[in-house]
Design a protein that fits this description.
alpha+beta; 18% helix
Length: 355
């Protein structure tokens, strides 16, 4: 075999080897890539620099973001976490910085965002069962986009929306979140080849203390009332059993539901008062009481057994009047005008609890 022919054979063999290597490269890379295991929904409060998988309490109106997290296992058995978060905590344990990575795998990734809520805004108990059969489910929010990071909202499909003066999203309340992370191949961008779901409705009761939850609260004594928004209200049956009351009390402390009694008890607890200590005064809503000097957010107003919590001066005239807003818990949680709860003329009873 002459030298020229040998050169051609060597060049051809190298060319074939390169083609095989190029063909095998993505498959080898995929085989060596970390294996996805689980998804998590994390909450990052503006300015904190830390995404938290767990409950978070914030002042009403504080911006926050939701971060998708995909846990994967490396070949040595160690875990890494794909996310856009700069710092991450799961269940109160900080994830090491070297374990955090941006996604760099092949194909497209979509994050689908859900809230985890009770199926209805209100449940009336008839006393036939010893427990509280509240059902939870996931509610998809396509308007939040399919990105790894989205702005967080307290929107709830089952409760009346509580908006600020800008008429946009609720400023306070309790909400829980779930994310689905879908991985697509380059060959099929319509159907995901893999899907990983963070904790959802079926996990809530068992993981209530670690579930990704935002509770945005008004300051002072109004905090327990504002935290009830987004939750299901429960109406008690006549003569409820001690067992039922205890179960409801536990669920209320876990912020899974509320009753008018639990909200009132929470408000009085923050105010440092017992029911017997509350001083009620007869007033007229049009009497001109001053928001700055006399009445405050969190004060109570009642007529008979109907009690509401004062919220804000609606027309900003500085005086308490029928157009002002209150928080009402008669059937679920709602923000209403005092005139809608106590129509007509006449006196109401007012209790000042302080701020």
């Amino acid at each position: 075999m002459n030298t020229t022919k040998k050169v051609y054979l060597v060049v051809g063999a190298v060319f074939v080897a390169l083609l095989v290597a190029l063909w095998l490269q993505p498959r080898v890379k995929e085989a060596l890539a970390p294996v996805p295991l689980a998804a998590f929904a994390a909450i990052e409060v503006e300015g904190s620099g830390l995404a938290v998988v767990g409950p978070v309490e914030i002042p009403a109106g504080t911006p926050f973001r939701l971060r998708a997290v995909l846990e994967a296992q490396e070949r040595d058995g160690g875990s890494i976490y794909y996310s856009e978060a700069e710092a991450l905590s799961i269940g109160g344990t900080a994830v090491a910085a070297e374990q955090l990575r941006r996604w760099h795998g092949a194909g497209e990734v979509k994050a689908l965002w859900f809230t985890v809520e009770a199926r209805s805004a209100f449940l009336q108990l008839d006393g036939s069962e010893p427990g509280v059969a509240v059902r939870f489910e996931e509610f998809f929010h396509p308007e939040w986009s399919t990105l790894w990071t989205v702005d967080g909202f307290l929107d709830s499909r089952s409760s009346e929306q509580v908006t600020g003066r800008d008429g946009q999203h609720p400023r306070f309340g309790t909400q829980r979140y779930q994310v689905w992370i879908e991985l697509y191949s380059d060959d099929n961008r319509l159907v995901p080849k893999e899907r990983y779901k963070s904790w959802g409705a079926g996990d809530l009761l068992d993981r209530v203390t670690e579930f990704p939850t935002v509770t945005a609260q008004l300051p002072g004594v109004a905090a327990p009332a504002s935290a009830a928004f987004g939750l299901i209200g429960v109406g008690l049956p006549p003569n409820p059993s001690a067992e039922l009351l205890e179960r409801i009390s536990i669920r209320a402390r876990q912020r899974l539901l509320f009753t008018q009694v639990s909200v009132l008890r929470g408000i009085l607890g923050v105010a440092g008062q017992d029911v017997e200590d509350v001083e009620w005064r007869n007033v007229e809503l049009s009497a001109g009481l001053s928001w700055a000097e006399q009445v405050s957010q969190g004060d109570l107003v009642r007529v008979g057994a109907r009690i509401v919590v004062l919220h804000e001066d609606a027309n900003e005239n500085g005086l308490l009047d029928p157009d002002d807003f209150c928080l009402d818990f008669e059937v679920g949680a709602a923000k209403r005008r005092l005139a809608d709860v106590f129509p007509g003329e006449g006196e109401v009873e007012w209790a000042h609890l302080g701020t």
